[in-house]
Structure formats: structure tokens, C-alpha cells
Amino acid sequence: MMKMKTGTSPPVIGGGSSGNEWESRPGGMVVQRRTDQNSDVPRVIRVRVKYGSVYHEININSQSSFGELKKMLSDQVGLHHEDMKVLYKDKERDSKMFLDLCGVKDRSKLVVKEDPISQEKRLLAKRKNAAIEKASKSISDISFEVDRLAGQVSAFETVINKGGKVEEKSLVNLIEMLMNQLLRLDAIIADGDVKLKRKMQVQRVQKYVEALDVLKVKNSTKKVEVNKSVRHKPQTQTRFEQRDLLSFVEEEEESRNSNASSSSGTPAVVTTKWEMFDSASAAKAVETVKPVPPRFKWEFFD
Length: 302
Prior knowledge:
Blueprint: E1 22-24, E2 30-32, E3 44-51, E4 54-61, H1 66-77, E5 84-88, E6 91-93, E7 109-114, H2 116-161, H3 168-186, H4 193-264, H5 279-289
Parallel strand pairs: 3-7
Antiparallel strand pairs: 1-2, 3-4, 5-6, 5-7
Helix pairs in contact: 2-3, 2-4, 3-4
GO cellular component, one term: cytoplasm
Domain Ubiquitin-like: 45-112
Protein name: BAG domain
């Protein structure tokens, strides 16, 4: 920026003859107008840029920034605009600085060099973003699979709560599939929002595994009760059948003994009240008992 002459009045923006010589820039700085006085349109200048041993001529607006110049040079030089640095008068210029404020004029010479530090930073940021995208995609896939398994968990829960039974193998397989999803979530390394999403999915899987453990216990207890009822039914029937058979044999022996005592002439003392059966029913009962061998050997007394 040119120095003001001593003794002159301070510049006035937008009024008088000095309004054609001074202007306000976006940063609030008041500078001397570098364009033609008869036109308010900025000039297009041609600058020569050297990269290695090759010179490139670029037509650019005089009020453009060095960052815009880098973008225009990116295709010609073959470098990313963030991987280069521009030198003007042996000083590196920031991408946010303007050409005219730094004194760049028509036919000015600039030098472009590759910046390895900026290139490394950009590659690291790119790699980090790629890792975040990959982790986010993996979590989305796991979430979809967990939703599918959650439907099976709710179906098993409905069946067992209504009194039904489910194969234990099905419950075990479902628990194993959920544990595999939990291992996949543990293998994901992420930060920020992705880490929060992973934590939410881990809590979901743990909740479903705990619910399946409870359902497994309920299902096993119902199975044991059914087995006990099946086992006790035939045993009680056989016990009752044996008891009836023994009582019938004892009644027959007692009747024989009473008949023998009455034939001898000695009166028999009856201590038990016995039910009397007719001959037809007794014959049928004897015929049904004949195939069954007696369990005890009885001694007969005259």
C-alpha cells in the first residue's frame, strides 16, 4: 500500500474526489484503489508461475486470493491445491491472502513448490475419514442384522410366555449369532459419534442375550415338569393294578379258610366285613386272574 503524503487530509470513503482513490476491502481495511479510475471493475492480470523448471502463465483477477490461484494451478502442475505453497518475493504466502494486497501485479513472477507437511496432513485426514466411513458402514450392517435377530427373539418370547415349548437348540443358536455380532462390534475402533453408535448397539445385543437366557431357563423348567408327569402316570397305574390283584387273592384265601372251618363244625369268628359277589362275577374274576402267577406262596391249614 502506498504511503500517504504528509499534510493531506484523511481519506473519505464514497464522497468527493478522494472517493475515486480509496476503497474498503472485505476485512475492513481502507486501501488505495489499484484499478483504472474510469472503471470500478477489477483488472485481470497475467502472472508467471514457476514449478520446477517449467513456467506457467495464469490469467487471474487482481483481487483474487492465493488459494484461488493454487486451485487454478492444480490441473497444470499436477498437485493438489492443499499440497503446494506459493512464494512471492521469497516469502511464502498464505492461501487467504489477496494478490493485490501483497503487491502482485501484471507480469509478476511466483514460485510454486510442493509442501510435504501439508500433503502428509491431508493424507492422514483422508485416511481418518475413510476409517470413520468404514466403521459407520460396519455398524449399520450389524444394526440391520441385530434387527433381524430381534424379531426371532420376540417370536420365541411370545411362544414361551403363552405356555408353548421351543427347542433348546434354536435358543442356543440364536444366542451364538448375537454373540458373533457382539464380537464384530468389539473389533470396531472409532471415535466421536461413531463410538456412541457402537456403544448403543452393544447395549442392544447384551439386552437380547439376557432375555434369551431367561427364556432358556423358563423353557427348561417346563420341559422337566412335562417329563415328570409322563413318568408318574404309568407307575401309579401299575401300582393300583398290583394292589387290586393282591387284595383279590387275599380275599379268595380267606373264603377258603372260612369254608373249611364251617365244614369241621367249629364256629368261625368273623372279624371283617366282606363284600359278597355272585358266582358269575367271581368266575369271571378267577378266569382273569388265572394267567397271572401268584406273587407269594400261601400255606393252607386244615
